[in-house]
Amino acid sequence: MKHFAAICILVLFPFVAMAAERFPVAETLKPYIENGELPGVVTVIADKDAVLQVDTFGYADLETKRPMKSDTVFWIASQTKPVTAVAVMILVDEGKLSLTEPVAKYLPELANLKVAVQTVAAQAEDNRTVLVPVDKPITMEMLLAHTAGLEFLTPFQSKHAIDSLPLEQHATTIVMTPLRTQPGTAYHYSNIGITLAGTVVERIAKMPFEEFLAKRVFEPLGMTETTFFPNAELLNQLATTYSFDREKSQLVPSQSRLITYPLDGKRRFADPGGGLFSTPNDLVKFFQMLQGNGEFNGKRILSESAVKEIHANRTGALNAPRGLGVVTKDGIYGHGGALGTDAQVNTNNGRVLLYFIQHQGLAKSEEAKQKFFRIGNLP
Asked: If you count Cβ atoms within 10 Å of the first and of the last residue's Cβ in the chain, which end, N or C, has fewer?
């Protein structure tokens, strides 16, 4: 296996609370870089008020030896889902939206959804799928907790990408896609459910979803490097995605089929379920806000009750611990992304933990991440 020299930098933010490494992250994660198992990683440990420690390892690009940094740009993919949940809860706080009313109140086209049901006949060859009406309306809570019965993607998105249409057009294709199960009866992870939630925000706010996030979330939090549409400067900071080539026995660049390239092209649109790009410097502020019960650096984004709604378990009886746009269990909640990024908000000890990498199918990344989370929660 090809080996790569490891770069390990302890980054001290202006508001870092500690002058030296407190958590033994480097000794745990550096071997993955040195052994050529992972290209590069950035980790962040924080509380609601301050970043405690940032470590960077390896390279954002192996060919050019561009090192990982705290301002390296990552496609955070499904980590967009908690951001969309926050957008929804802003409107709930303002009394403009309800979690429990039918979503068709805001998206009338959802009023006539159908469920695909397979009939079972005496002869197997006579089995067929029929469409039946929903027996209860879909709510915003169901969309954000993945219990609406929706597919993961529409056929159009599966063929093209999650960012291939404006939200209003995606809503049309979603309506034409039958549900897998009756609403509220099962857990099915659904990107298009979150897309619909973002569409509701767009309609109620009467502005593009990306503009709402910029005005109500990113600008107040000082998140200047978080966007659906990275410009040339941010693309120069983008981490290359890697997979493992068994024939070459080394890491090689790869691209996800879920998003549209080039990333600065005009045929890309905001996707509330997985479209955001961000940096460690930026994204930590969002999760610090959640740890701060809706407030960060003197700016209140959500009420305390809204944050509690986000991480309350909505699916306990369905064996899938989900809140609103987050995974939640035993006082710890957060979300990961398709290329390996992840975050945890630990309400038990007040920590915020973030793990950044860009990869497809590198099993060692999950192992390294879990070790980091254990380290980050040390007393």
From this structure: C
Residues in the chain: 379
Query: CA neighbours within 13 Å on the CB side: how many for 360?
Result: 14
Q: What sign does the CA torsion over 42, 45, 46, 51 have?
A: negative
Confidence of residue 203 (pLDDT cuts 50, 70, 90): very high
**What is the C-alpha separation between 99 and 129, in angstroms, rounded?**
31
What tokens appear for 91 in the block?
Answer: 């409107």
On the question of pLDDT at 14 being above 80, the answer is no
pLDDT digits over 238-291, tens only?
Answer: 999 999 998 888 999 999 999 999 999 989 999 999 999 999 999 999 999 999
- Distance CA(113)–CA(102), nearest Å, equals 12
β partners of residue 75: 277
What single letter denotes the amino acid at residue 75? W
Cis amide linkage into residue 262, ω under 30° from 0: yes
Rounded CA gap, 186 and 229, in Å?
A: 34
- Average pLDDT on 117-140 reads 78
Looking at residue 31, the DSSP 8-state letter turns out to be H
Beta pairing class for 242-245 and 299-300 = unpaired
Domains and CATH numbers, the chain: 8-82+210-376 (3.40.710.10), 94-189 (no CATH)
Q: Which residues contact 123 (CB under 8 A, 6 or more apart)?
A: none
Is there a contact between 334 and 344 (Cβ–Cβ < 8 Å)?
yes
Token pair listed for 69: 């940094």
Q: From 211, 191, 208, 190, select the one nearest 199 (Cα to Cα).
A: 208
Burial class (CB in 10 A: 0-12, 13-18, 19+), 206: exposed
